[in-house]
């Protein structure tokens, strides 16, 4: 094996201590059994999130609708790519019932990409938001949507349902986007965030998230922050990319904590209302606390 190949293997193999999280396995098993019994998927399990134990252990989850198979195959992602299932019109009710059963005060709803559907999945988001509100009128709702191919008719449908937070992830800086995202572009995602901010009710916060460790440079991250603030994005999450498997995009770096702290300060100085920047941060991790922090200001 060549010297540079040894270095590549060493980055992925030398996992930092913060990846070794502990949790109550019995609580996790109970949560998984309940969700399977209700025929629901969570992004926590489907994407192998490192926070699964903490979130499941505390009785919270981010629901993934229209899955489990995605019509795209982004190189950073662990969600299965394959033939999508028929749209389950009873799924929104089950999500609402699970939200009530778990007594969630804040719920996150995301989805796989459904480029095969005429509405790209927008109608199912609306049905899910409405079902949650009907059974859980006091629960705040966050959606984490795909780019809907930039189609404003799809965005208008979701906006009209008035989620409390509209989240769409940029994922990474401009130069790396074409290397890791399938069919999605930097400008399309930025355009989605811009459109939502301009057309959603003022009460709806706009949010996005990025991963570190893909080979991005400081100046590229700062440019991304500037691009986001130029369209008035409210919330930003920054977390570590963890390579799901050998066929996924190669991890370039375990980013040190000092850089997360530096990015947090840089982002806050640019005017974001809330920034979460730490290795284990994911776009829906501690979403409830994030919204509460803004409400309580």
TrEMBL record:
The Gene Ontology terms for molecular function here are: 4 iron, 4 sulfur cluster binding; lipoate synthase activity; metal ion binding
Segments forming domain Radical SAM core? 56-273
| InterPro entries linked | Aldolase_TIM (IPR013785), Elp3/MiaA/NifB-like_rSAM (IPR006638), Lipoyl_synth (IPR003698), rSAM (IPR007197), rSAM_sf (IPR058240)
The record's subcellular location field reads: Cytoplasm
Name the Gene Ontology biological process terms.
Answer: protein lipoylation
Residues binding [4Fe-4S] cluster 2, per UniProt: 70, 74, 77
Give the EC number: 2.8.1.8
Q: In which pathway does it act?
A: Protein modification; protein lipoylation via endogenous pathway; protein N(6)-(lipoyl)lysine from octanoyl-[acyl-carrier-protein]: step 2/2
Comment on bound cofactor:
Binds 2 [4Fe-4S] clusters per subunit. One cluster is coordinated with 3 cysteines and an exchangeable S-adenosyl-L-methionine.
Keyword terms of this UniProt record = 4Fe-4S, Cytoplasm, Iron, Iron-sulfur, Metal-binding, S-adenosyl-L-methionine, Transferase
A single GO cellular-component term from the record reads: cytoplasm
Recorded hits in HAMAP family, A to Z, give: Lipoyl_synth
PANTHER family reported for this sequence: LIPOYL SYNTHASE (PTHR10949), LIPOYL SYNTHASE, MITOCHONDRIAL (PTHR10949:SF0)
Q: What is this protein called?
A: Lipoyl synthase
């Amino acid at each position: 094996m060549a010297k540079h190949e040894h270095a590549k293997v060493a980055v992925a193999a030398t996992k930092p201590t913060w990846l070794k999280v502990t949790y109550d396995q019995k609580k996790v098993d109970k949560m998984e059994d309940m969700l399977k019994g209700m025929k629901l998927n969570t992004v926590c399990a489907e994407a192998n999130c490192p926070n699964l134990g903490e979130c499941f252990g505390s009785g919270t989850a981010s629901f993934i609708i229209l899955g489990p198979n995605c019509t795209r195959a982004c190189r950073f992602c662990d969600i299965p790519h394959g033939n999508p299932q028929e749209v389950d019109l009873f799924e929104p009710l089950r999500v609402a019932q699970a939200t009530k059963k778990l007594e969630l005060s804040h719920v996150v709803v995301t989805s796989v990409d459904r480029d095969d559907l005429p509405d790209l999945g927008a109608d199912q988001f609306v049905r899910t938001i409405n079902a949650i509100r009907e059974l859980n009128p006091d629960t705040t709702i966050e959606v984490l949507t795909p780019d809907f191919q930039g189609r404003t008719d799809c965005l208008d449908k979701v906006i009209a349902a008035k989620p409390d937070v509209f989240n769409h992830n940029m994922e990474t800086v401009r130069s790396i986007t074409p290397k890791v995202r399938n069919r999605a572009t930097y400008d399309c995602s930025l355009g989605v965030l811009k459109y939502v901010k301009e057309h959603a009710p003022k009460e709806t916060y706009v949010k996005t998230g990025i991963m570190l460790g893909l080979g991005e440079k400081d100046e590229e991250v700062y440019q991304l922050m500037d691009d986001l603030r130029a369209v008035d994005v409210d919330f930003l999450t920054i977390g570590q990319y963890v390579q799901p498997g050998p066929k996924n995009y190669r991890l370039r770096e375990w980013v040190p904590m000092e850089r997360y702290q530096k990015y947090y300060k840089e982002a806050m100085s640019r005017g974001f209302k809330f920034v979460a920047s730490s290795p284990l941060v994911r776009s829906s991790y501690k979403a409830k606390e994030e919204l509460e922090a803004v409400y309580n200001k």
